[in-house]
Amino acid sequence: MPVIKTFSPEETAGVGEKLAALLRPGDVICLNGDLGAGKTRLAQGVARGLGIEGPVTSPTFTLINEYQGGLTLYHIDVYRLDSPAEMEDLGCAEYFYGEGVTLVEWADKVKDLLPGERLDIYIKRSPEGEDVREIIAVPRGERYRYLAEELTKVVRAGD
Ligand code: ADP
Ligand code: MG
């Protein structure tokens, strides 16, 4: 998959905003990367793109934040979960297979609970500079192959 490089937090949010324009009810987007990689920045961009106003923060302690925009957004952060069982207790299936868009930070921690079809986004710091990030979108399933391709196209077009 092609790498999307960003050079500022705003640019990463911009990738999220472009992604939002492509989203449909039921889409699941998984965000992976170290602490401070930019998962929440990207999520904030998605929220903005969905027309959600007001602050969007990492649901590190609340685990799930729900927002109402053009689509319902479930923003989940499983960083503090001790076990996938806890995630199941939260009724995650309801989010994953519902009509909203679900974003999951640290999704790889609950891999076995994720739907087979989803977009896995990996964000990592680049050795090129403090504010440089490399974003890779790995699609799982036909719908997400399309999504990843379209995202790459619109991001490229904006360069
Ligand atoms: P995470 O949710 O992955 O822990 P955050 O999005 O909360 O990360 O934080 C990312 C941090 O990195 C912020 O402080 C942001 O300002 C900074 N940053 C610097 N450059 C970038 C970039 N290109 N993309 C995203 N964040 C960046
Ligand atoms: Mg975060």
UniProtKB/TrEMBL annotation:
Q: Where in or outside the cell is it found?
A: Cytoplasm
- Which InterPro entries does the record match to this protein? P-loop_NTPase (IPR027417), T6A_TsaE (IPR003442)
Q: Which GO terms describe its cellular component?
A: cytoplasm
Name a GO molecular-function annotation: kinase activity
Does the keyword field hold Metal-binding?
Answer: yes
Q: What family is this protein classified in? A: Belongs to the TsaE family.
Location (main, coarse): cytoplasm
The GO annotation for biological process reads: tRNA threonylcarbamoyladenosine modification
Task: Name the domain of life.
Answer: Bacteria
This one is known as: tRNA threonylcarbamoyladenosine biosynthesis protein TsaE
Write the record's keywords in alphabetical order, separated by commas: ATP-binding, Cytoplasm, Kinase, Magnesium, Metal-binding, Nucleotide-binding, Transferase, tRNA processing
